[in-house]
Specification:
There is one protein chain. By secondary structure, the chain is of the alpha/beta class. The chain has 15 helices and 15 strands. The protein has a seven-stranded mixed sheet with strand order 3-2-1-4-5-7-6, with helices on both faces. A three-stranded antiparallel sheet has the order 12-8-13. Helix 3 links the parallel strand 4 and strand 5. The longest helix is centred in the first third of the chain and has 16 residues.
């Protein structure tokens, strides 16, 4: 279902800021979210109200009772992020029952969870952390004690074998997490990492079918190879292959997608399907023609494909039609592979934000709402987080409310020289801060 026409539900979303951000990007969607925390939901309601987002409805609700709140088949996309592996079995069952009840016929559900076999290592570290914390009750003191333990544990010891090195590497990763994430993932009351096969079996028991995974390198996991045979049960075939890969890769985390059982899922990769989509990328291109993302280097040998990708690079965060980059099946397959490895994004629609300010520039209402609340970290119309600390830029973005021309905004005295206002607004458009 096209996002701007979709009905969205976020389950256990805290303040549901992810959902609120989507509602700002897609004003035609209908966004619902709930959490058990009254404080978190109140915070989300304050944000939605400040942004004047009338397509957001947030509620305080228990997952065990949520099925009664929502009509059958009422949501096209259901998101359950950071919940499934951190709740008791009865709640996990209630999550899948809610999805099975509320998912529309064409709907897709997203369920993330700490996965096996990497979860075994995290369980060992969790036991060590809980022993180190002992009887401490205060959350801040718990986190401090956990960090003290991890600081000491990450230091290499003489005689460390490969397993010990892996444990210390994972402990180092824990140290790099924000306090809230460390507290949620490792120090909560319930922590039960899941095997993909068990999650899929539980979902099947509620009339749901495994589609694929949304994680890096796993987008195409739900497809059979071009020469593969799925037999009478293609879902079983892709799950078996994915489970084997989990153990070979020592998988720690999964983002599984589910649909209603009985949907006709064509699991053959057909690259031509993306020809009508749009592409964006954070890749950069060096002077020697090599594409870069972080330390990763990508060389594209075909000149026309390389030039098409270069146009997409220069257009970011705008989206360019895939048909202007590649039309040959082999090149489309290469773009699919880049998509799977998170080097490019594929979209159903053009970007919902302009590449330059219009006659009456208008900052995203969510950005203006959060700036008005005094927030430093805001969400862009490209669904990214951006920190804005400069007082003059904040004042400029607040002034661009759609009611003024660029000249009128320049005359307001917000601290940016009048001759630089248009350039500043153009740069803001380049960060997906302005509405079309």
């Amino acid at each position: 279902v096209p996002p701007n026409q979709a009905r969205l539900l976020e389950v256990g979303g805290g303040n549901c800021f992810n959902l609120i951000s989507l509602a700002a990007i897609y004003p035609g969607c209908e966004a619902h979210g709930f959490d058990l925390s009254q404080t978190a939901i109140a915070r989300g309601q304050d944000i939605a109200r400040a942004a004047n987002l009338t397509n957001v409805t947030l509620a305080v609700e228990d997952i065990l009772l949520a099925r009664e709140r929502y009509p059958a088949g009422s949501f096209d996309y259901i998101t359950v992020h950071g919940v499934y592996a951190w709740v008791p079995e009865a709640v996990r069952e209630a999550i899948l029952a809610l999805i099975a009840h509320a998912l529309s016929p064409r709907g897709v559900a997203f369920v993330s969870y700490n996965a096996m076999p990497g979860g075994h290592i995290r369980l060992i570290l969790r036991e060590m952390l809980l022993d180190a914390i002992g009887d401490i009750d205060d959350p801040d003191s718990k986190i401090a004690a956990a960090r003290d333990f991890l600081d000491a544990y990450v230091k290499p010891r003489d005689g460390d074998d490969n397993f010990a090195k892996t444990m210390r590497q994972q402990a180092r990763s824990m140290l790099e997490r924000p306090d809230a994430l460390l507290f949620h993932d490792e120090l909560g009351d319930c922590y039960d990492p899941q095997r993909l096969l068990d999650v899929a079996a539980a979902a099947r028991g509620h009339g749901l079918a495994y589609l694929t995974d949304a994680g890096r390198n796993l987008h195409l996991e739900g497809f059979l190879g071009s020469d593969a045979e799925g037999g009478d049960d293609p879902e079983k075939a892709v799950l078996a292959a994915a489970s084997r890969d989990d153990y070979q890769a020592l998988r720690f985390f999964r983002q599984s997608l589910f649909v209603r059982a009985g949907q006709a899922i064509d699991r053959m990769i057909r690259p031509e399907r993306i020809a009508g989509m749009y592409l964006s990328t954070k890749l950069r291109r060096r002077d020697d023609g090599v594409f870069m993302l972080g330390d990763d280097e990508i060389e594209i040998a075909h000149p026309a494909l390389a030039e098409g990708m270069a146009r997409a690079v220069s257009a970011f965060p705008q989206r360019v039609p895939v048909s202007t980059i590649a039309t040959e099946p082999g090149h489309l397959r290469m773009l699919l592979q880049l998509f799977s490895e998170w080097y490019v994004n594929l979209h159903l629609e053009p970007a919902p934000f302009p590449d330059r300010p219009g006659a009456h520039p208008q900052t995203s209402p969510l950005v203006r709402g959060m700036l008005g609340m005094g927030e430093l970290m805001i969400s862009t119309l490209d669904h990214a987080l951006l920190k804005i600390e400069q007082g003059n830029l904040r004042a400029l973005l607040m002034a661009a409310d759609g009611s003024r021309t660029i000249g009128e905004i320049a005359a307001l005295g917000h601290g940016i020289p009048p001759e630089e206002v248009e350039a500043a607004l153009t740069a803001s458009a380049g960060r997906a801060l302005l509405r079309a």
